[in-house]
Design goal:
Elements (H helix, E strand, L loop, with lengths): L5 E3 L5 H10 L3 E2 L8 H8 L4 E4 L7 H7 L5 E4 L9 H6 L4 E2 L6 H16 L2 H9 L20 E5 L3 H12 L3 E5 L10 E2 L2 H7 L2 E4 L13 H5 L6 E4 L8 H9 L5 E4 L19 E3 L8 H19 L11 H14 L1
Parallel strand pairs: 1-2, 1-3, 3-4, 4-5, 6-7, 6-9, 7-8, 9-10, 10-11, 11-12
Helix pairs in contact: 1-11, 5-7
This protein binds NADP nicotinamide-adenine-dinucleotide phosphate.
Amino acid sequence: MTRPKIFITRFIPDPGLNLVKEHFLPDIWVQDLPPSRTELVELARGVDGLLCLLTDNIDCEVMDAIGPQLKVISNMAVGVDNVDVAAATLRGIPVGNTPGVLTDATADQTFALMLSAARRIVEADRFLKAGKWVTWHPSLLLGADFAGSTLGIIGFGRIGQAVAKRAQGFDMRVLYHSPYAKPAYGAHPVDLDTLLHESDFVSIHVPLKSETKHLVNAEFLSKMKPNAVLVNTARGGVLDQNALHHALKSNQIFAAALDVTDPEPLPMDSSLLELENCIIVPHLGSASKKTRDMMSLLAAQNLVAGLKGERLPNCVNPEVYNALSSRNSIGTM
Ligand code: NAP
C-alpha cells in the first residue's frame, strides 16, 4: 500500500502534530504567513488528506486541483465558512471541524470584550498612558452597567449558551434569537426585533453563511438602543463594517467590540480604527494555550480518521457517509 500524502497548511500545536506524525509523514507549511492560493494548490496537489486553517480558502477549484484522491479536509476551527462544504459533499469528501473545545475560551473573550467596551477599558488605558490623568473626577470616562441590564444573544448554540451562562453571574436578563434553540441558563427566546429593541448588550454567535452575511447592517443597528454595546466574536462577514462605522460615529449605539473583521487582517486605513468607541482585536476568540492544543488534537483526530477510512469524530457533512454507504450497497447488489 502506498503511503498517504498529507499537507498541513501551518505549524499547529504539538498535541495535534504529534498525533499526525505517529501515523503519517506530513508535509507542513512552515512559514508564519499562510500559503498563497497558488502555493496551496501546488503543495496540496495529489494529497490524500488536508489539514487547513480558517485563513485557507478551500473552494471547489482548490479541491479539483488537489485531485479526486482527496479523502478528508480537516479544518482547525469550528466555523467552516472558509471551506465550500457543499462542494466537498458533492465530491464525497468529509469535512472535519473542532467544536466544543473552544466554547469556553470564546465565551470568555466575548465577556472580556463586552466589559472592556462597556467600561471603556482600552480608551482609559490610552488616556492614562497619554498623561491625561490629572485627578479623580465624578464624570471621568463613565461607562455602562451590567447588573440589571439586558443581554441579547443572536445564535444560541454552544458559544451563545456559554455566554448566557456567564451572564447569570452578572445578574443580567438574557434574551436570545436562534430559530431552533431551546431555552437554557434562564434565557428567553424572542424575535430579532424584540431582542434589538430591548437589549443593552447584543452579542453575535451565528455561523457565517449566505443567510447571515451582513446580518448586522444599517437596519439592524437602527433598531438597537442608543446606550447599546455590540460584540461580534463570530465572523467578520456577519457585520457590515460601513454601517457599523456610521452607527458608532453618529452615536446611534454606545460602543462596539470586534474579535473578527472582514477582511482579516483589517486594513490599517479602515475607518473603524479612528473610533474611540470601537475595540478591535485580531481574531483571538480561541487564543488560549489549552484551547489551541485541544483544537489541534481534534483537527488531527479528524485527519487521521479520514485517512484510515473511518468516520470523522467531528464531521460537518455526515451526509457523505449516507451517500458512500448507499453507493457501496448498490455496488454489492
Ligand atoms: P453552534 O453551536 O453551531 O451555534 C451557532 C448557533 O447559531 C446555532 O444555534 C444555530 O442554529 C444558530 N443560527 C444559525 N443561523 C442563525 C440565524 N440566521 N439567526 C439566529 N441563529 C442562527 O456554533 P458555535 O460553536 O457556538 O460557534 C458559533 C460561531 O462562532 C462559529 O460558526 C464560528 O464562526 C464562530 N467562532 C469564532 C471564534 C473566534 O475565534 N472568534 C471561535 C469559535 C467560533 P441551528 O443550529 O439551528 O442552525
